Amino acid sequence: LGVPAEKRETIFRYDDTNPEAESMEYINSLREDVDWLGWKPCKVTFSSDYFHKLHELAIELIKRGKAYVCHQTKAEMEASRDICKAKLADPNFVGNPCSPWRDRTVEENLAEFENMRRGKYAASAAILRMKMDMESPNPNMWDQVAYRIKYVPHPHAGDEWCIYPTYDYTHCLIDSLEHVDYSICTLEFESRRESYFWLLEALDLYRPKVYEMSRLNVAYTVLSKRKLLKLVTSGIMRGWDDPRMPTIKGLRRRGFTAEIMNSFCTEIGVTRNENTVEYEKLTSVARGVLHERSPRVMAVMDPVLLVISNFAEVAGEDVKEWEVPNFPHDPSRGSHTVQMTSTVYIDRSDVRVEDSPDFFGFAPGKVVGLKYSYRVEVTSIETNDQGDVERVVVTAFPPDASIKPKTSVQWVSTHLNVPIETRLYSHLFTTEDVPDDEWEKALNPTSEVVHPNGFVDASIFQWGPVPESAFQFERLGFFVVDRDSAALPSIAPSSDSNVENPKLVFNLTVPLKDSKPKEKGAPTKSRKEEQAKAAAEKEARKSIAPVDMFKPPHCDLYSQFDEDGVPTHDAAGEKLSKSGIKKLKKDWDKQKKLYESSKN
Question: How far, in Å, CA of 248 to CA of 246, rounded?
Fold first, then answer.
């Protein structure tokens, strides 16, 4: 917007015009979230603080002949809007979309508005509407509602009012009253520009500049408040702070810090182009930040006992201590000590009864490294009647042995550890672009996988873990302490016994690297190859007229279309949902721009 950094100030305003949709929980939660993100507004205001001024302006609007009290029902108003739509489609259509109360006198409207304020009408019996333009091609100009009756106390303003202003009436007026330079909205509000400026002009008020930007759409998730609310109220999510939720509180609980979120937003920038940001971009930013902030510790999520049969011979003592770097990439940041005895825990995922060429963990006869300590050879793997591995027996090589294993795995002491529960999180939905209509069917049933009986090395206590403390579990990923963890001891235990405390709970923030499933034998393509392929496909699409894009030979999924070529029925003849057609229309608009760009 060209505003120098030193002159940028923002106002934190609660648009709390609807008392039924507001609560102190939401108000306090919003403030907590923006404080956590580090945002420092120049002032905090409430739309409800302006209720008296907004009421005065409504009276002034009536006096200027620009507002009237209407008694149409919701169904009657919908019928009026249908007439407006019909007249736009056919100028010869006969019908009057205007309210029968539209031409009331100023005196009558003032009296009726006062009756609304005094509570002389039922909740839906009267509204104040702006006298705009019922013949406009813009539906936002079809006499919007300015005030409605609600016999509900307001969580911030109290019980003084029974009439409340609408968002469309309030937003532009308070922008003007607060002398906002730029009112920044998302693109779906672009069509409201006309009504925004109409009201300010009708009252001869200062007009702020308006700028619209595209919404932040992220793959594999939804940001619709309606859909997120359903996930919470239906019990699919445990609350607004469930680590799978794309809310500030959910992301925070999962381990995404304010630094990560601000860096992510800075990196993707602001655009007016409709786009969906890959979720991997967020996880990539998170790894960069957490790599420098998270000390390394060893943990196992699904423990299997490993016995070193010749431990006493190789170690020369009952307990062996090893120094482990806190940050392997930066030795200057210190180290911590881990203890080993003849038995340790390894992770079940690193053990196989039957070996294969692409597996480098514990299998019969295999040589594997135990990180920071010995290299060992598997002598036997013991299973129960169900075939589950119960114990792995190995022999250790002397430290000066020249043998080199292909991998080294993490391990945890059996006598000095902390019980943990690990919660692994993946995409909330199974598809990148979640459908509008049957979105619940796309929910990922494995978006949360819990391992309740793991262990982490007791050396973790030297960092005093508390909720939101971040660690890198070696070879596993970046994890954060969840608030479900029980009371934590202030220092690490020093005796030869497990910590006598309830387990810690850890949430997976991000794995160490993104891995997408790939078909076996599928060739690996470079990023340049993928980009070149995408560019070639885009170039080929330039020759397709938008009216033909959903028809054979380009597509065979639909059977009926509107005059522009947008599908209305699927291949089986079933009528598409409104949301489905709306999405296809967006794709049609993009193709239209692409097609026209090739003609210029």
Answer: 7
pLDDT in tens, the chain (600 residues): 788 888 889 999 998 899 887 777 878 888 999 999 999 999 999 999 999 999 999 999 999 999 999 999 999 999 999 999 999 999 899 999 999 999 999 999 999 999 999 999 999 899 999 999 999 999 999 999 999 999 999 988 889 999 999 999 999 999 999 999 999 988 888 889 999 999 999 999 999 999 999 888 899 999 888 899 999 999 999 999 999 999 999 999 999 999 999 999 999 888 888 788 999 999 999 999 999 999 999 999 999 999 999 999 999 999 999 999 999 999 999 999 999 999 999 999 999 999 998 999 999 999 999 999 999 999 999 999 999 999 999 999 999 999 999 999 999 999 999 999 999 999 999 999 898 888 999 999 999 999 999 999 999 999 989 999 999 999 999 999 999 997 554 434 444 444 455 589 999 999 997 544 333 333 434 444 555 666 777 777 888 888 988 888 788 788 888 989 999 987 777 788 777 788 788 888 888 888 888 776
**Which residue(s) pair with 387 in the sheet?**
none
DSSP letters along 201-254, please?
HHTT----EEEEE---EETT----HHHHHHHHHTTSSSSTT-TTSSSHHHHHHH
Amino acid at 136: S
| Helix, coil or strand: residue 530 | helix
Task: DSSP for 386-443, please give it.
Answer: TS-EEEEEEEEPPTT-----S-EE--EESSSEEEEEEEEE--SBSSSS--SSSGGGGB
With residue 87 as reference, give the H or E element that holds it: helix 74-89
Identify whether the C-beta of residue 28 lies closer than 8 Å to the C-beta of residue 155: no
Q: Residue length, the chain?
A: 600
CB 300 within 8 A of CB 455: yes
- In angstroms, the CA 243 to CA 251 distance is 6
390 contacts 473 by C-beta, under 8 angstroms:
no
* Contact (Cβ atoms closer than 8 angstroms) between residue 142 and residue 83: no
Residue 301 burial (C-beta neighbours within 10 Å; 0-12, 13-18, 19+) = buried
Q: How far apart are CA 51 and CA 173, in angstroms?
A: 11
Whether the CB-CB separation of 461 and 434 falls below 8 Å is answered with no
* pTM (two decimals): 0.78
Between the alpha carbon of residue 33 and those of residues 163, 299, 417, the distances in Å are: 30, 31, 35
Among residues 10, 69, 60, 63, the alpha carbon closest in space to that of 34 is found at 10
Residue appearing with tokens 């608009």: 589
